[in-house]
């Protein structure tokens, strides 16, 4: 078990409400209340989690966006390559044409 809180629950709720209703930064609000920015940050995070259980925090949302971007690129890349270099019986594909060209042998 952790140590008992230095601040009453009601004070923490009011500090979070003040921060959310204010246009001041979290640091400014914390300073005006005589508490650390870290304390106010953890109270805001705890309030967010209790109000939206199961919601993703900013780090999880960012990770999710990265995963979605990677998945999208994995799907789109083969399609883009196939569109850029369509294969046909007439050998119109610039990649296959250059690969089939015979090269001059190296002579010293």
Main β-sheet description: none
* Low-confidence regions: none
Helical stretch tally: 5
Shape: elongated
**Overall radius of gyration:** 30 Å
> What proportion of the residues form beta strands (DSSP E)?
under 5%
For the secondary structure, the number of strands is: 0
Number of domains: 2
Provide mean pLDDT, rounded.
76
Question: What this model shows, in words?
Answer:
This protein has helices at about 10-20, 25-35, 35-50, 60-85, 95-100. The protein has about 110 residues and is mainly α. Helix 1 crosses helix 3 (about 35-50) and helix 2 crosses helix 3 (about 35-50). It is elongated.
List the helices and strands and how they pair.
Layout (H helix, E strand, L loop, with lengths): L8 H13 L4 H8 L3 H15 L6 H27 L9 H7 L8
Short note summarizing the structure:
The chain is built from 5 helices and no strands. It has helices spanning 9-21, 26-33, 37-51, 58-84, 94-100.
